[in-house]
Write a structure and sequence with these properties.
Radius of gyration of chain B: 22 Å
Strand order of the largest sheet of chain B: 1-2
Strand order of the largest sheet of chain C: 2-1-3
Protein name (chain C): 1,2-phenylacetyl-CoA epoxidase subunit B
Number of helices of chain B: 13
InterPro entries (chain C): PaaB, PaaB_sf
Distance between the termini of chain B: 59 Å
Radius of gyration of chain C: 20 Å
Number of strands of chain B: 2
Largest interface: A-B, 52 and 47 residues
Helix content of chain C: 10-25%
Order of helices and strands of chain B: HHHHHHHHHHEEHHH
Oligomer: heterotrimer
Structural class of chain B: mainly alpha
Order of helices and strands of chain C: EEHEH
Shape of chain B: globular
Distance between the termini of chain C: 63 Å
Strand content of chain C: 15-25%
Largest sheet of chain B: 2 strands, antiparallel
Pfam family, one (chain C): PaaB
Chains: A mainly alpha, B mainly alpha, C alpha+beta
Number of strands of chain C: 3
Structural class of chain C: alpha+beta
Chain lengths: ~280, ~325, ~90
């Protein structure tokens, strides 16, 4: 007996019609649709989790102007999430929208980078995480603008404008705080050291990445490394911060193997949807 | 209100100057920062605008409490944008106060040390998602009652800040009502949450206007100066008259057995809130006073290195610019 | 020690090509950050296409006591306003 529901049985087909695709079979691993779905959840989950982390600061930032700026960034990231996960849901074709994907999947189905689930720490840690991510995010989006998939190219063009501002902001703050007081310097250096091991994952491709790259849908992760290195080296130098020597990279987030932190984040993020599954909000 | 029970100062300036000042206000002129004003007017305004600003800032906390638990991406974005607006409103108001010769850091210091107050309403907890609707609908609704007339207040920078705030605020009340509508028309559990939110926020919302001030000297002075436009009782009545039909539309019950339409006054009769509870909250004994203040204290002290670091960098960079210019000459 | 960020005045030119208009103030350690803060604080609703920031301390304002001498002389120069002139209806819009 097959373990997966068969789309050809009349029952399943009827169900799919009646419930807008909910009865359709899951995408087959290794198929182009499944690859595309996975690639889109990697994008959307990453912006979702980072947006969530940044939003945790709301009302608690060191100064009002920063509170407002951070909220703008979180709003951009949540907006991008709606687009990436919305498209992922369409590609999947099983009736799940962006909210269903964000609020009804378990940790092992999340494909975000480990970097963005790191806890906020102090404000310097949050800014450093943001910079290390933004410096990758911008070249990623630039490459996605040239995707063979027009929907992806369109979303990337919109998000690219937002993220160009993000990286300008986070790079500038890293420079200022690195080259500020002794204390701000020390805090930024220790943030950099603590986060460094989580930056490499973004540039390590797997089979899904390779197939998406081959098809021109998404860039090969390895191809984004030199841009990132250039930005990071220039900013760290101006910030008088020392780039850690280690090239060890924690990985697994993109494949659904996460740190313990993600579970706690999802516990609060998904709580209402999980507790009241019949409700609409 | 966001500024509750603001004590006015007694004016003891030259009577001729005072009379001329009052004449300007009576003629509907705006007082601007560099104009002559009685010291008492200045001090009272600093207290009132400062308290209003503090309320916006502390008011971020009860709603911020639900940002990480908002049930959809859109609700999360809306709530985040709303709480962000409150930071903006606090900022505008601090700037208005600063034109009177006080600094934002001074005002912050006074909030954190407990010498200045913020609105009593923010010492109540947000316990369910429906509370986020109730805060928008009732708390912002009550605030708007006061803020709309304050667009005509006599002090120019305060009035202008209010114009900006009122423009943004109507989004807040609407999103709150929209949220609680979804709850009230939702599952039995959601409906119960909506009713519970109304039960808990009704009387604290009525308290926002402050106790009756029809006999208060402070109130009389502030109204003469047009930094207070209506009495507390007028605004409270207006709020009840506006809100009761909105609750009915939702199928929710206002928790007041004495609520009754009164044809003579063309408004609702309603029960007074428990003013002892109000004074307890003002004294620091509300359910969340300690938590709210310590959250603000922590944010401020944890952020000191950040503010100082950026200032230090700006000074260094300026010194480098000057040195480079000198070297070039 | 007071290490408070200085105050800046923010001017924004909106979509419709009107002059820059004073919209409010904010705190920032220097001009670049003042500019960014202005973008984040005062253009959240798509209000502007161009921003000026000026240190508040650098603004020279007219004194209220000069209001008479500065502005009243313009009061009686009604001929500067288009409404001063009666144009016959037959001439059309002018």
């Amino acid at each position: 007996m097959p373990s997966l529901p068969d789309v050809m049985t009349p029952d399943a087909a009827q169900l799919a019609q009646a419930a807008g695709g909910e009865g359709r079979a899951p995408l087959e691993t290794g198929s182009p649709e499944h690859d595309l779905f996975t690639g889109l959840t990697r994008l959307g989950d990453t912006t979702l989790i980072l947006g969530h982390r940044v939003s945790e600061w709301c009302g608690l930032a060191p100064v009002l102007e920063e509170d407002i700026a951070l909220a703008n960034m979180a709003l951009d990231l949540i907006g991008q999430t709606q687009l990436w996960l919305g498209l992922a849901g369409e590609v999947e074709g099983r009736g799940r929208d962006a909210d269903a994907l964000a609020f009804r999947r378990d940790g092992w189905e999340f494909h975000n980078l480990l970097l963005v689930e790191r806890p906020n720490g102090d404000f310097g840690r949050t800014l450093m995480r943001q910079f290390l991510f933004d410096a990758y995010h911008l070249p990623l989006l630039k490459a996605l603008e040239g995707s063979t998939n027009p929907r992806i190219a369109e979303i990337a063009a919109k998000a690219g404008k937002e993220v160009a501002y993000h990286v300008e902001r986070s790079a500038d703050l890293v420079i200022r705080l690195g080259d500020g007081t002794d204390e701000s310097h020390a805090r930024m250096q220790s943030s950099l050291d603590a986060l460094w091991g989580y930056t490499g994952e973004a540039f390590i491709g797997d089979a899904v990445d390779a197939r998406l790259g081959e098809a021109g849908v998404m860039p090969a992760p390895e191809s984004l490394r030199s841009d990132w290195d250039r930005t990071v080296n220039a900013v760290l130098a101006e910030a008088t911060l020392e780039r850690p020597a280690s090239d060890f990279a924690h990985k697994g987030g993109k494949q659904g193997r996460h740190s313990e932190h993600l579970g706690h984040l999802l516990t609060s993020m998904q709580w209402l949807q999980r507790s009241y599954p019949d409700a609409t909000w | 209100m966001y500024a509750q029970m603001v004590k006015s100062e007694a004016a003891n300036d030259d009577p001729a100057l005072l009379a001329a000042f009052q004449a300007r206000i009576d003629a509907g002129e705006r007082i601007e920062p560099k104009d002559w004003m009685p010291d008492a007017y200045r001090k009272t305004l600093i207290r009132q605008i400062g308290q209003h600003a503090h309320s916006e800032i502390v008011g971020q906390l009860p709603e911020g409490n639900w940002i990480t638990r908002a049930p959809t991406l859109e609700r999360k974005a809306i709530l985040l944008a709303k709480v962000q607006d409150e930071a903006g409103h606090g900022l505008y108001l601090y700037c208005a106060a600063e034109t009177l010769g006080v600094t934002r850091d001074d005002l912050t210091e006074q909030l954190l040390s407990g010498r200045m107050k913020y609105s009593s309403i923010f010492n109540y907890p947000t316990l369910t998602w429906a509370d986020i609707g109730a805060v928008g609908w009732l708390v912002d609704g009550a605030a708007i009652m006061n803020q709309v007339p304050l667009q005509r207040t006599s002090f120019g920078p305060y009035a202008r800040a209010m114009v900006r705030i009122c423009k943004e605020e109507s989004f807040h009340q609407r999103q709150g009502y929209d949220l609680i509508t979804k709850m009230a028309q939702g599952t039995a559990e959601q409906k119960a949450m909506a009713q519970d939110a109304l039960n808990r926020f009704w009387y604290p919302s009525l308290m926002m206007f402050g106790p009756s001030d029809k006999d208060s000297v402070h109130s009389t002075q502030s109204m003469a100066w047009k930094i207070k436009i209506n009495t507390n009782d007028e605004l409270r009545q207006k709020f009840v008259d506006q809100t009761v039909p909105q609750a009915k539309y939702l199928g929710l019950t206002v928790p007041d057995e004495n609520l009754k339409w009164n044809d003579d006054k063309d408004g609702w009769d309603f029960s007074e809130p428990d003013w002892n509870e109000f004074y307890d909250v003002l004294k620091g004994n509300g359910p969340c006073n300690t938590d709210r203040l310590s959250a603000r204290q922590k944010a401020w002290s944890d952020g000191a290195w950040f503010r100082d670091g950026l200032m230090a960098h700006a000074k260094k960079a300026e010194a480098r610019r000057v040195a480079a210019k000198v070297a070039a000459e | 020690m007071s290490n408070e960020w200085p105050l800046w005045e923010v001017f924004i030119r909106g979509q419709h090509g009107l002059n820059h208009r004073h919209v409010g103030s904010l705190h920032a350690p220097d001009a670049e950050l003042a500019m960014r803060h202005a973008r984040d604080v005062y253009t959240r609703r798509n209000e502007g296409v161009s921003i000026w920031v000026v240190p508040s301390a650098q603004i020279t304002a007219s004194a209220p006591s000069d209001k008479g001498p500065l502005f009243e002389p313009a009061n009686d120069k009604v001929y500067r306003h288009p409404t001063f002139y009666d144009i016959p209806d037959e001439v059309g819009h002018m």
